[in-house]
Structures are given as C-alpha cells and as structure tokens.
Amino acid sequence: MVRAVWAVLRMVSCQGAAALNLNVSGSVIDAASSFRSVHVPFRAAHSKVRHLSSAVRMPEITTDHLDKKQVQLLSEMCILIDENDSKIGADSKKNCHLNSNIDKGLLHRAFSVFIFNSEEKLLLQQRSDAKITFPGCFTNTCCSHPLHTDSELEEKEAIGVRRAAQRRLEAELGIPMAQVTPDEMTYLTRIHYKAQSDGVWGEHEIDYILFMQKVEMACLIPTM
Ligand SMILES: *[C@@H]1O[C@H](CO)[C@@H](O)[C@H](O)[C@H]1NC(C)=O
Ligand SMILES: *[C@@H]1O[C@H](CO)[C@@H](O)[C@H](O)[C@H]1NC(C)=O
User: Fold this and answer.
1) Which of 61, 126, 181, 202 satisfies CB 3.0 to 4.6 Å to 99 for a cystine?
2) In this predicted model, what pLDDT tens digit does every residue of 63-119 receive, in sequence order?
C-alpha cells in the first residue's frame, strides 16, 4: 500500500535539494531529509563511477521477509547503462539494488515523476513498508525504472521512460493510464543518483525527471 498526499513545494534550490513543507494531519513535517532524489549534477558524478562490463556475482541475500509482490518485482529486468546513459545490458531489479553490486559500479536507468495539481501542489507518496529501499519514506509522486523491453528501451524524446512512468503511476497509485499519457509528461533533465537505503540495498541510477500538471484527477483521492 502506498499513501498519496498533496503538499506545497515551497522552494527548490538550483542544486535541486528540495525543501518541502508537508502538512499531514495538521502537523508540518519538513520532508527534505526523507526526500528521495538527492540531486547531483549529471556530469559531476562521472568520475566516481567505474565502467562495469563483467558479470556481477550474487551474494546470498534472503528475501524471505518480503511480500510476494515485491519478490516478483525483483526479477524484473532493468536497463543497465554506462556513466553517459548509453545502454550496455540488462540485469534484474534485485541485482541493480544490491550495494555489493553498486559498489562495483552497476548503474541502471530510472525515472522520477512529479505531478502537480491546479494549485501547484505536488503529489507525494509514502512508500510502502514492504519496499526493499527506503520503506515508509515520503517521496515524490512516483519513482521506478523502465524495463528492458522494446517499448521502454526506446530513447527518442525519452518516450520509453515516459511509457514506464505511465505504467508505474497506474501500478503504484491507481491512476488510469488514459489520465497520464506520455505526451503530457515533460522530460526536464537527468540526474545521477546514488544512495544506500541500508547495509544490503541501495540505489544507483540515472534518473529522468518528468513533470506534469493535472488540473483534475478525480480518480485520485489522496489521504490529505
Ligand atoms: C496545517 O494544517 C492545519 C490544519 O488544516 C492548519 O491549521 C495549519 O495552518 C497548516 N499549517 C501550514 C504551515 O500550512
Ligand atoms: C562518457 O563521455 C565522456 C565525455 O564524452 C567520455 O570521456 C567517457 O569516456 C564516456 N564514458 C564511457 C563509459 O563511454
């Protein structure tokens, strides 16, 4: 279960570090510390990433405590990329999110969607407690990965990534695909993002930032 909340985005600095004031149940939370996208300029992080072409060996990781849905998602194939976002292969979501592989330079393509309403409030979600990375954290509307499929690999005007966003907005937030078509999404930029969630799991991705404004979204009834 994810939870959706409308919040006012008060300020985004040029570094992209978001200062977000979130009013949940009458109390104001500064969500900056749990905001998932710590923006690093795309080029600046290059030197830290080593090119990885050899096969990645899997350590023994138990997923017994995860629910069935999350385990199923872990076998989806993500798009492996180099530091310049050129595709170099495919690997499972599980392998892509293990710190042991990230430490060796494994990098995949991802996206972060930000949906604003007519009042320019940003739709946030609270991540499910069942997620392997950042369970329970508040984040922007939807973050996920394009899959290694013909449709989502297509790079022209970031169409593959925008299709993936449409797919995940339905899966995570129940927004019908007809209400969030790829042509309504504006691809702004890419960021290179790396963060550990815990000792085992983490993120290392080049993240396509997608913005869209929906005047009406009757289907979506956030908790606030
Ligand atoms: C937060 O919400 C409460 C109740 O709706 C309201 O009284 C308060 O002014 C809000 N605070 C901010 C900073 O928006
Ligand atoms: C990425 O692009 C930079 C600048 O063009 C280049 O120096 C570097 O070798 C490229 N990296 C890879 C892995 O191709």
Assistant:
1) 202
2) 666 677 777 788 899 999 999 999 999 999 999 999 999 999 999 999 999 999 888
Q: Find the ligand nearest to 21 CA.
A: 1
Catalytic residue among 143, 152, 172, 203: 143
- Measure the CA–CA gap between 11 and 27, rounded to whole angstroms: 19
Residue 121's nearest CA partner among 141, 142, 106, 94 is 141
Residue from 3, 20, 1, 10 nearest 120 by CA: 10
- Decide if 205 is catalytic: yes
* Among candidate residues 83, 99, 92, 100, the one with its CA nearest the CA of residue 206: 83
**Cβ neighbours of residue 219 under 8 Å, at least 6 residues apart?**
174, 175, 176, 179
Q: Could you tell me the distance, in angstroms and rounded to a whole number, from the CA of residue 47 to the centre of ligand 2? A: 10
What is the 49 CA–ligand 1 centroid distance (Å)? Answer: 43
Ligand 2 contacts (CB < 6 A) are 51, 82-84
pLDDT tens digits for range 29-49: 333 333 333 333 333 333 333
Among protein residues, the one with the nearest Cα to ligand 2's atom 8 is 84
Closest CA to 80 of 102, 112, 59, 58: 102
Query: How many C-beta atoms surround the C-beta of residue 98 within 10 A?
Result: 21
Contact 200, 98 (CB under 8 A): yes
- In eight-state DSSP terms, residue 85 is S
Q: How confident is the model at residue 3 (pLDDT cuts 50, 70, 90)?
A: low
Residue with CA closest to ligand 1 atom 2: 26
